[in-house]
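SEVERITY: medium
COMPONENT: batch folding queue
REPORTER: lab tech (J.R.)

DESCRIPTION
The queue accepted two submissions in a row. Attaching both inputs and their returned structure tokens so the on-call engineer can compare them side by side.

ATTACHMENT 1
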Amino acid sequence: MFRLALRNIFRQKSRTAMTLAAIAFGVAGLILSGGFIADVLTQLGEATIHSQLGHVQLFKKGYYEHGARSPEKYVIDDAGEIVDFVARMPEVDITLQRVSFSGLLNNGKADWAIIGEGVEPDKENHLGTFVRVIQGRALADGDADGILIGDGVAKALAVKPGDTVTLLLTTVDGAVNTSEFSVVGVFQSFSKDFDARAVRIPLDAARKLVDRAGANSVVLLLHDTANTSRVKDLLQPKLEGRGFDVRDWIELSDFYAKTVELYRNQFGVLQWIVLMMVLLSVFNTVNMSVFERVGEFGTLMALGNSRGYVFRLVMTENLMLGLAGAVLGLIIGVAVALLASRIGIPMPPPPNSNVGYTASIRLLPDTVLMSFLVGIAATVAAALIPARRVSRTPIVDALRYNI
């Protein structure tokens, strides 16, 4: 049966080539689109992690929901003890303390509402590999009165590196506190909204301004993003009983979660479109091929072959076509993905972002396997109706096709 099926495939070389092309391009398209979307999501995730959030953050319970309005009410007094505890985990690269505050930034002419962070500069520079300093330089541990401001803040107040600004905020006791800072640099992160209000000053300076020791959050940067869920699961039972909230970067980034859902739905629709294209293309070709050979099938049945044999013969032919087309599509898809990744695909900044990036096409085993199986399944499914119809054709009617 396999030898006969193989000979039948090569009887109509042009038709077979068209069928193989439809299958191959469908499989290659799924591999390339799936790999591109996977790269977009991976780079979006890494940009989110390395521009602001880190992998895991620890807060006092209630800070995530209400801390933006009153961060001074959710201070971790024993932040140093927490840092020492989590830093011993082998998955953790560095730990950072942050003090959050809100207030007004004044350039001598106008005020601008800001959301500020007191940070450990050298550690933040290690974390913030996706933060671009577009003017001046990054904040350093030695900058006792230095301030790093977002691009949107710099444009709103028309300030540049070297200028002096005044930061005004209210302490936990309700007193007004002010301090002068020298602008050391202007940065762009992944989020344009963040850059429009964000400023960063050294941790000690922030503690003096808010008149409170401790920190509002402890940020964990891991060696590998894949360990995020494991670290979170290890910390939750140990810290939640002490009044802490443990959240990973996906929970902290609503934009990322919604983007993942959007792209996955789009890729699912694309899969169905490719599947229908392959089905229709193969069905049309198989239908023509089968009904041109009804007389041959009638002769086979007249010679004693069963209807099941005819059905299996047609299905075997198309299974072989599907395998060949899927293998060809696999080769094309992998080759194009490797070439595109080597060259790089320049991408504009995503929505609500200032920073573009260079995309590639990731070859994920599950995506490649799924695309391969879709090519075979679509081809076999397209042959079911023609094979069933011709195998049920009465022998007498089938033989008339030979006349």
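ATTACHMENT 2
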Amino acid sequence: MKNYLIYSTLFGVFSESLYINIGFDFKLVYIIILCNYFVIKQIRGDLTIPKYWLYSLIYIFTVGIGTIFLYNNQFSKIIFQVFGISFMSIYFYNFFLCFEFDVKDIFLKYCNICFILSLIGIPLFFILVSFDSSYRLHSLLQEPAHFTGTVLPAYYYYMTNFSKYKKKFVVILIAFLLSMSSIGYIGMLIGLVMIKKKVNIFATLSLTFVAVLIGVLAYTYIDNVKFRANDTLGVFNEFDVSNVNSSTLALATNSFVTLQVLKSNAFIGHGIGSHPLSSKQFIYDITGIEGYGDNEELMFINSTDADSLTLRILSELGIVGLIGVCYFIIKNYCGYEDNYKISRGIILYFLYKLFREGHYFPAEMYFFVFTYYFLKLKSNAERLALAS
């Protein structure tokens, strides 16, 4: 039963592309998790949630209710987001409790699936690129950025254990390069700088130089990277969204909306679930937006999730929300022994998530959040046992 629970959950983590739209994206992973709640109940006998997590949900809900009266937020949007966050977080918290904090074994299983997906993705890339020259590797996942973001922790772990996982690291590295994902390349570069356990100024500077050099080469020789970089730098220079690519348009419009929300209330934002409403309020003030005419799908591109978790948190939960996220990451970082390799790998995912995707309840996010959390708990328990 426990093996089923592990592998069905990991399948769910990588199944974001399996969904149907019924007004919102109803994903296969939701059905998997709902069924697995009953499995966890049989294994553990009950379900639980840590107090600090419960207090956070109560705070988010209470502030959300207040923003209905302050900023015309909608009760249905608050309930939907709070329910989704609760549904996913309670599941993954109890999932790890089922295995008595055996986090590393589960993480290694996740890494092996990343290797298999990369192994599938490489020949698939060469087959599909022969039909479509613009195709970029994303294996069985939704898109190149999502593939690289989800696989980044495994990439970092294999890189820092290169002597043990040479072949697996090389396969994932090739898959990353073929993804031609700007966010994936940035993650790889940050991973290089973070590779040393202890801070060494010479090593850090050397790795930073290598990272910058790789970045310059990517900008020079990879058209997709150069095109997006030029557009992004140009639009933020004048904040004019005329004639920009869709990725830059999404980032620029959602950045502008978030900035207007912060001017209104930087402390708590406009409440959970409110960003699409804020977009409708502020987006028409952006220079050049009139050029998109009646094409609302393009004008409001990624407005449901603000295009990045950082922008969405600032827009909906304000500076308090972002401080809470940063506090969690800092407080639960595990630098003991070799556990830092897992913690830092997951931090790379957190950075990707904070700057790229704004959905509050993808399965892989909660898998990484609670892997990160329980790794620190387990390490603390082991250190206390040794000390006694």
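NOTES FROM REPORTER
Residues 143 and 384 are 43 Å apart (CA to CA).
No errors were logged for either attachment.
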